[in-house]
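[step 3/7] inverse_fold.run input=structure_tokens len=162
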């Protein structure tokens, strides 16, 4: 057996102690860009609860996959640390991805129908969903994006980018 030490993954190189809420480019793999949609400041005792995270996942994934950048979206899903989401997109200017993210959050806030994918066939924990909880987080993150507009997509200085 090869007992080589596992490589430290790129996201562990980011200094999470200085990371604020916002939208960042986490990594690039060829033409695939991973965005860090940071909804909460890490390690401050302020985390999305599972229902909130799960609900926003269903809502955002549905709307971003029916947005103008739908054919460029590879993946959207929550971080296990409960302080944000990853959005993987192919081959688009970052400002376009940001605009689509803002539009997606606005669509969620305006939405008043049934929760998407709320059935045992479509989801692994379908009772743990709430439109109101998802909308509350969408509203909160939308305010973050408006507040941080024009800041760029780099992690703050000291946040591991060399
Ligand atoms: Zn689900």
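[step 3/7] decode complete -> sequence:
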């Amino acid at each position: 057996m090869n007992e080589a030490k596992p490589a430290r993954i790129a996201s562990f190189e980011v200094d999470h102690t200085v990371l604020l809420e916002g939208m960042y480019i986490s990594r690039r793999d060829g033409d695939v860009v991973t965005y860090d949609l940071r909804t909460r400041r890490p390690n401050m005792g302020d985390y999305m609860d599972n229902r909130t995270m799960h609900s926003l996942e269903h809502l955002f994934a549905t709307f971003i996959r029916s947005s103008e950048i739908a054919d460029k979206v590879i993946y959207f899903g929550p971080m296990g640390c409960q302080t944000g989401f990853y959005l993987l997109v192919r081959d688009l200017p970052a400002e376009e991805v940001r605009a689509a993210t803002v539009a997606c959050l606005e669509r969620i806030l305006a939405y008043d129908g049934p929760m998407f994918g709320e059935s045992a066939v479509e989801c692994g924990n379908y009772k743990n969903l709430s439109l109101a909880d998802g909308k509350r987080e969408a509203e909160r993150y939308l305010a973050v994006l408006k507040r941080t507009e024009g800041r760029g997509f780099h992690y703050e200085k000291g946040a591991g980018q060399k």
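[step 4/7] annotate
Residues 4 and 150 are 42 Å apart (CA to CA).
The longest helix spans residues 94-110.
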